[in-house]
Amino acid sequence: MLKQLNNAISQSQVLVSRHARERAKERNILVSQVGESIPQGEILETYPDDQPFPSCLIYSQLSEGTAIHSVWSYDPINEVAILITVYYPSSQEWIDGRVRRR
Question: What pLDDT was estimated at residue 8?
Answer without folding.
Answer: 95
